[in-house]
Specification:
The chain is α+β, with helices and mostly antiparallel strands and about 140 residues long. The protein has three helices and six strands, in the order βββαββααβ. Helices cover about 30% and strands about 30% of the residues.
Length: about 140
């Protein structure tokens, strides 16, 4: 395996803390969402994970679509990452809604599934997070 890039971010204070990347691009306050009895006036891990997964997934979608000669320039993915309680433990779940304008819904679903198999975030979460990928 050839390492192409490494992001480095340091967190302090947990869900009511701070995150900062070594390059200074990320320098954010982290806060529990109001739904989890927090202040809700900062970022939370689920938002950041959803943002990262969405953008990575679109990159994977572009790669698989280019190989098939399909233009996905205007594609969008909305990713919802949920923080769930199951008895005494907590786990994440996710829903990825994929919109690819200009192609039939069945073709969009096929490409969405191929992108899901290619996306590093989707691969990393497979079997660990209940996730659905649906073309709209």
């Amino acid at each position: 395996m050839e390492k192409l890039y490494t992001a480095e971010v340091t967190a302090t204070g947990g869900r009511d803390g701070h995150v900062k990347s070594t390059d200074g691009m990320i320098d954010w306050e982290m806060r529990k969402p109001k739904e989890m009895d927090g202040q809700g006036d900062g970022f939370n891990p689920e938002q950041l994970f959803a943002a990262a997964w969405s953008s990575c997934y679109l990159g994977a979608l572009e790669v698989v679509a280019i190989k098939e000669g399909i233009d996905v320039t205007n594609a969008e993915v909305t990713t919802r990452v949920s923080f769930n309680k199951d008895g005494n433990s907590f786990l994440l779940s996710a829903e990825l809604d994929v919109h690819i304008p200009g192609i039939h819904i069945e073709e969009a679903q096929r490409l969405a599934e191929k992108a899901n198999h290619a996306c590093p975030y989707s691969k990393a979460t497979k079997g660990n997070i209940d996730a659905t990928v649906v073309a709209l």
